[in-house]
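Re: the multi-chain job from yesterday

Posting the exact lines I submitted so nobody has to dig through the queue logs.
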Amino acid sequence: MNRVGIVDVAMTPGVETKDYFLDQVFRVSKEVLDKAGLRREDVSTIVSASSDVFHGGVSCANSYYWDAGAAFLKNGSRQDGESLFAFIYAVMRILTGHHDTALVIGVCKGSENPDDDMLTHFFTDPFYQRQVGLNETVAAALQKREYMDRYGITDEQCAGVVVKNLENALRNPYAHVKKKVSVDDVLTSDVVMDPLKAMECAPKSEGMIAMLLAKEDLAKKLTDKPVWFKGYGSSMDKFYLGDRDLLDGQLGNAAQKAYDTAGIKDPKKEIDVAELCEPYAFQELLWCEDLGFCDRGEGGRLLDSGATARDGEIPVNPSGGVLASNPYVTRGLYRLAEGFLQIRGQAGERQLDRKVHTALAHSTHGFAGQCHAVAIIGS
Amino acid sequence: MGRPVAIIGSAQTNHGRRFDVTYPELVKEAVDAVFENTGISPDDIEGVVSGTMPSMMEGVALTHFYFADVLRSVGKPILKTETCGSTGISLAFTGYYWIASGMADLVLVVGSEKMNEGDSQATMTTVVDPFYQRYFISGAPGVFSMQCQEWSVKIGIPEEKVRAAATRLSIDHHNDAFDNPHAHIKKRLTEEEVNTARIITYPVRLWDVCPNSDGACAMIFASEKMAQKLGKKVAWVKGVGYSGEEYWFGDSEKAIWQCAIDASRQAYDMAGIKNPRKDLDVAEVYNPFTFQELLYYECFGFCNFGEACDLTLKGTFSREGELPCDPSGGTLCTNPIGATGLNRVAEAALQVTGQAGAHQIPGAKLSLAHAMGGVDQFNGVMILGSDK
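And the result, structure tokens for all chains:
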């Protein structure tokens, strides 16, 4: 099979800005093309990710930014809600041979729409769930409670994830939340939805990102250091929480598909860095189990052992993760961009000391991880 | 380019005001039917593509969560493709690229809409930006009326002739719909009824406009290996083309409409079509408004600019004509937006596999399916053939 390479990436920091939406989309699109020495005319196809409910009152979001995102009179498409979907759709488009380059764009201007809890509330069905006020934070609270009850995960361990990730974020110029916090700070922050504390929940951030992909021979021409697409897996879970085991979801299935395509047998050994989507701190521990970094119920002990720290055996979220910056729709593509920068050795102060050959990027959207996507890239 | 891709079957629900089912039940109806029509088991599906209009229309955001169970997507990878009105054809493209890339052999593609539980015109008013355009572009008819006026003035066609040709299309399509078991509006109309119907936005009158329909469409795309294994008559994807243009309506040229021209030419080039009127046997053109269908004949090269009205009045594009267009009654009679473009592909596939029943065009071997979306901004064209 022909290989697909990531040529370069451009992104905005997660902090709220007064910048005009279309300017932001234009700037990241232009920046990534400039880095590759390409003009807009050279790009073959454009696949974007956005979501109308996260889009500040404009429906059919991609109509709005189509030309700002370099797509004028071009063949393109759009994925709703999950930016790793846009990445894999762009990869598919190149693999068919129809397109030699693809620009992947993710747009989410958090500052121009209501709280995520209000928006994720609209994932509910109008008859049963909406009346009880279900949203992503409520679902996560149920999931955390079950995690604590069944496997003895502690509040201190969940707080440990926050301390680790926000410490990492101090080195990341794109992070939204930058402050050094202690376990005590997290434990004494307000209860948002029992047992979740405020500091265990991700902020709401901005995030405009553009990534340029190219087929193998062209990628090698456009950059000295292409990073290759290795594998992808995604999996959907049932809609109603009551139909699911919230601690045995679909991430394991998604990861297995990605590992199989990438030829990975022992993820903990073969993956050099993992960027996970943990909008709620405990989820990083649970996702580590699903990804095979430790056994079921061992996520807390994995963190305690220091294995997921910057200098650990399997560094998780050296960027600070989603707890440090949470542009809902584009957070998956940000995870992939961080993996890309680590492999290229261009992650600046957050660059790991070890040599990074293979990176895993994970994203999730929906209640308690209803849908997961995992991408593997490598040198 | 890529691996050959086949459409091995499709299913459309009945359309109309479907207050007899909930939204997921409507989707389930199409999904269950496509498995029954093709004899394929949901377990064999390797990927699912889902799409609808935006959340404001649905009343539920990110509908792939809500439909996860009825799409039979649990435990499978999913893609959620949305490009406004062109969602249906973009869904078909996603299925096509997924198979052509080699990443799957069997993909289920589903588009759906329950228009009568939402407010389509209010939703479409929010597609335009809140600062400049929203005050004067209300809903879809406003945009398309302006386009019609621009086209007739720029190309220089007398208003009476445009009216006469649009009336002919309206009468024909509402009549054609009687032969399509899934069509929503079926009506025998007279010239006088169409010409004197109430004005929606001048010059568009009631019978020039599509209805709000509830409906869903499901389709299965397969690799050559899988299509051969099943041994059934399939429709092969021969060409795909898509193009989008600027957001600001006033900046845009909508008469000699570049993204419509480009989308069709991309698809023709891939399919080796030189003379579309001669080479194609049938076309399912996205026609939510009669006037727009005329304009598409010209942009798609079915005739020269300025000829569409005369040829329509001569019957060139009618059921018995040289290139029959929308023998299903088209979008004009049935418009569940998130499914509509996929309905066009389903109809085009039925035609080249000889399964279109009462509205079959005899001997059809090469067909065109099309959809449009955005602020009159996106066009997608897919060419299907009976031979690989």
